[in-house]
Amino acid sequence: MNIIEIRDLHFHYVEQEQVLEDINLTIEKGEWVSVLGHNGSGKSTLSQLIIGLLKADQGEIIVDGLTLNEDTVYDIRKKIGIVFQNPDNQFVGVTVEDDIAFGMENLCFPREEIIRRIDEYSKRVRMNEYLKKEPHNLSGGQKQRVAIAGILAMNTDIIIFDEATSMLDPKGRDEILDYIKEINAQGVTVITITHDMKEAIHSDKIVILKEGKILKVGTPKEVLNDKATLNASNLELLLPLKLMYQLEESKIDNPDLKDYLWQLSLNR
Amino acid sequence: MAIKFEQVSYDYVGVDQTRYRAISNITLDIAETGEFITLIGETGSGKSTLVQHMNALMRPTEGEVTVYGVKIYKDVKKKNKNVKLNPLRQKVGLVFQFPEYQLFEETVERDIMFGPKNFGVSDADAKVRARQALQAVGLDASYLERSPFNLSGGEKKRVSIAGILAMEPDILVLDEPTSGLDPKGREALLKLFTEIHRNLNKTVIIITHDMNTVYEYASRVLVMNKSELVFDGTPDELFLTGDFGSWNLETPDMIDLTRKLETKLGVTFHRLPKTVEDLHAMVLEVLS
Ligand SMILES: Nc1ncnc2c1ncn2[C@@H]1O[C@H](COP(=O)(O)OP(=O)(O)OP(=O)(O)O)[C@@H](O)[C@H]1O
Ligand SMILES: Nc1ncnc2c1ncn2[C@@H]1O[C@H](COP(=O)(O)OP(=O)(O)O)[C@@H](O)[C@H]1O
Ligand SMILES: [Mg+2]
Ligand SMILES: [Mg+2]
Question: What number is the ipTM of this complex?
Answer without folding.
Answer: 0.94
